[in-house]
Input
Amino acid sequence: MRRVLRSVVDRLYTSRLAGQIAPDRLPKHVGVLVDGNRRWARSVGYSDPSDGHRAGGAKVETFLRWCDEIGIERVTVFLLSDDNLNRPSDEVAALEKVVEEVVADLAAPGNHWELTLIGALDVLPTQMATRLKEHAASTTGRRGGVGVNIAVGYGGQREIADAVRAAIAEQAAKGSTVIDLVDTFDTDAISRHIYTATQPKLDLIIRTSGEQRLSGFMLWQSAYAEMYFCECYWPDFRQIDFLRALRSYSQRERRFGR
Output
């Protein structure tokens, strides 16, 4: 009976929260750090961290459906950082398997999300990178749902370095000299080559697990993004928590440094 009553109360509160968020105050692009999977596993008695990663992976699809319901245009999900690859080899292998399963599930027929991979896929095992690319390619042209960036093998500093190299190569191809490059190089030159250059600007970053840092996530794009930190671990993240984050965002005055 208590469970039924709690479910009813949660539904009513969810509806109330959604009603407090004006459609014109929604973020267009939300980034989410799905943090706390290993700690969640320990907290519920699992000894294998991969149980936490699997639970976290399962939550991603649910989260995207919440985004669809409320009308978010673009989501970037931080699934695997380049730093994560420095963990013990057995944990890395299990985490890579979960990432592959998540991407395959999101790309499955019947879903309407177009997937874009962002990150350095060359740091991943070759077969894994190939399969991820195939899954993402199979979603090309999908419409009707939120556009989804999957950040895998991703590092914000690496992205900026890649963008700088691409910007320099672009100028070199035009015959620019080093002096020309020094005189004309600016932030716009880098912005044109970041992974999300053609997408809506990042508006809101959500991080679960109580940690209050970016951990290299979208360093360039986050310059004027709003931050929302949630205490719960990612597998426990509820629609109520998401709506609270959106409500908080909608109530903020964004000045963009002005």
